[in-house]
Design brief:
This protein is mostly helical. It is 81% helix and 0% strand.
């Protein structure tokens, strides 16, 4: 029995020594951080050593369960933020050495609050969380300005969650001010969107929507999120509400245009595209799209047997393509689209030409020659536009193929071989 008692006491002594070792490392970490704060730019090694010692200290179960130690941990991480803030004031080019410090400080204070058994421990934890809330916001803003959007989102999101913790404990939060709260939610959404964290931002976007936000982008974002999620009813709901509330917002208008394109609602697109062109007169992509939509409408009219309407749509399409060419001679799409229009028109004549080729009578031969000449003339109409698009982009494969085929059709075999060779060379490069 005495031997067993001796072993038990030895175990307690060893455990106690480990606990003392953990607390010792915590003190050493505090000293290293104090040295780091004296010269942030020069003493980065002290920060690294402090974090190493801090991690070693909290590997001790006695330390990691101690509310006082956890409050100290939070205080140490907050001091890292303070040091970097001061350095940033002195040196605008300074980059935060530890942008995750605000979150780590918050986590430590939250654990201290959960484990607190004394009023003083609870008070210290809540006091630390009040400071941490501001640090989270400021760190998020700094990361946002640095285009570190994922990091900004994590800090903003944590600030929102800590606000709830503070209010539950009867403490004041900076988000008690609705204007500040709405601003933080908005930038949380923007940071998350830019950081490609689509799923994470939805509750914050919905908060803004439910609180009658004056930010049109929230409606656009909710529309796009539901479109990607396959919920067309919700997607249309947010889009229609947004367009009604913010009629002049170009982002929502373009979202509506893209949605109509995706759904094949071509007729309603014309007026929307014209409005978009008025809002952004220098955006030639809109004008090119107007041409493309008119071409698609012409095709549908032809399929329905309405050749007159098809002709009107085609004339409109060419008008818009010519407008683009006049405004920007370096635009590749416009001459290519016109060339493709004439090329496709010529290609459609091939069946008629081949049909006349089977009639060897004088009348049949005459019709064949006339149809063949008409087709060749249409290919020749396409030629200068493809040559222009080739001059803008000599390595576009579709342009080279079109030129190769056109020269065959108009009987210039040497030129056709030249473009065939250039096209084949693309695959070797």
């Amino acid at each position: 029995m005495k031997k067993l008692t001796f072993l038990f006491l030895s175990f307690v002594m060893a455990f106690s020594l480990n606990a003392q070792d953990g607390k010792k490392k915590l003190k050493e970490a505090t000293k290293e951080l104090a040295t780091y704060k004296q010269n942030v730019a020069a003493n980065s090694a002290n920060l690294d050593n402090a974090i190493k010692l801090l991690n070693e200290a909290f590997a001790d179960p006695m330390v990691s369960a101690d509310p006082d130690a956890l409050n100290t941990k939070g205080e140490l991480y907050n001091s890292v933020i303070d040091a970097n803030f001061v350095e940033g004031l002195k040196n605008p080019n300074h980059k935060n050495a530890m942008p995750q410090a605000a979150i780590l400080a918050t986590d430590a204070y939250e654990m201290a609050l959960a484990k607190a058994v004394k009023k003083g421990q609870t008070k210290d934890a809540l006091k630390g969380l009040v400071i941490a809330e501001t640090n989270l916001y400021n760190t998020g803003a700094t990361e946002y300005d640095a285009k570190e959007y994922a990091s900004a989102f994590r800090n903003f999101e944590k600030a929102i969650k800590i606000s709830d913790v503070l209010k539950a404990a009867g403490e004041k939060s900076r988000l008690d001010d609705k204007m500040l709260k709405d601003e933080l939610y908005y930038f949380t959404v923007i940071a998350g969107s830019l950081g490609e964290m689509t799923k994470e931002i939805k509750p914050y976007a919905m908060y803004l929507y439910d609180n009658n936000t004056d930010k049109p982008y929230i409606y656009q974002l909710l529309h796009e999120m539901n479109t990607e999620g396959g919920d067309d009813a919700a997607a249309e709901k947010f889009l229609l509400e947004g367009r009604k509330k913010f009629a002049g917002d170009s982002g929502l208008l373009f979202a509506e245009i893209n949605y109509a394109l995706k759904k094949g609602r071509l007729t309603e697109l014309i007026d929307k595209l014209k409005l978009a062109s008025e809002l952004e007169p220098d955006n030639l992509g809109i004008v090119n799209t107007l041409g493309s939509v008119n071409e698609q409408l012409a095709k549908k009219s032809l399929e329905a047997g309405d050749t007159v309407k098809a002709g009107e749509y085609n004339a409109e399409a060419l008008k818009y393509y010519e407008m683009v060419m006049a405004k920007d001679p370096t635009n590749f799409d416009a001459p290519y689209n016109i060339g493709a229009f004439y090329y496709n028109s010529a290609a459609k004549m091939a069946d008629r030409v081949n049909g006349f080729a089977q009639d060897y009578s004088a009348a049949g031969t005459k019709k064949y020659n006339a149809a063949k000449a008409e087709m060749a003339a249409m290919f020749e109409k396409a030629l200068p536009y493809f040559l222009k698009s080739e001059a803008i982009n000599p390595k576009d494969p579709n342009t080279l193929i079109a030129l190769k085929e056109i020269y065959v059709r108009i009987g210039q075999m040497d030129k056709s071989k030249e473009y065939q060779t250039r096209y084949e060379a693309l695959g070797k490069n």
